Amino acid sequence: MPLTEVVTEGILEHLSGRRQVAGNVRNSSETVPKQALSTVARMSALRLAIRRCRVEDLPAILRIYNDEIETGVSTWDEAPWTPEQREAWFAGHDDSTPVLVAESGGEVVGFAYLTFMSAKSGWRFTREDTIYIDPGARGQGVGDQLLGALLEAARAIGVHLVVASITSSNTASLELHRKHGFEEIGTLRSAGFKFGEWLDTTYMQRVLD
Questions:
Q1: 24-75: per-residue pLDDT in tens?
Q2: Is residue 163 a contact partner of residue 154, using CB atoms and an 8 Å limit?
Q3: Which of 20, 39, 127, 156 could, after both became Cys, cross-link 15 (CB 3.0–4.6 A)?
């Protein structure tokens, strides 16, 4: 029987007047409150909450990502990350590049985040999204809820364009992004090499305003 949990934290009310954050440099003193993240989780098997990432979530994020390195092609990394690398990665994110996690039963089952496309100032209103899901939680709407919340967070800080670079064989991610209004822009052929195969990547984008 489907379970529905509504997680609402008033994103519009709390972010009124804060849309300049997208154009700010990293480590801005402008803060996006944790209350600013909201989503409606429609789950068939999981009760899910989407929230801002905390330091204590990093071991779960490390486990999920390293599993994909070792078994999948959603990332083209080939060597597992260390805890120190993951800590440095998290320290490099701030309110202009939020990191979200999906939590079910006290366990992190997925994460998503925004990064700048370029350090050049003209790119300051553009972000790239990234999403990874625990293998045991796939196919249960976790990615759907994470991407929806991530787009809300992006819009709230004034992001204009969100871009996704998706391994072309990852049909689930392509369909997820289409569901959230992304359109395909183009494909780079044989751009990556992993597990003895050449890999293509498909670029998608969504304009938020």
A1: 444 333 344 444 444 333 334 578 999 999 999 999 999 999 999 999 999 9
A2: no
A3: 156
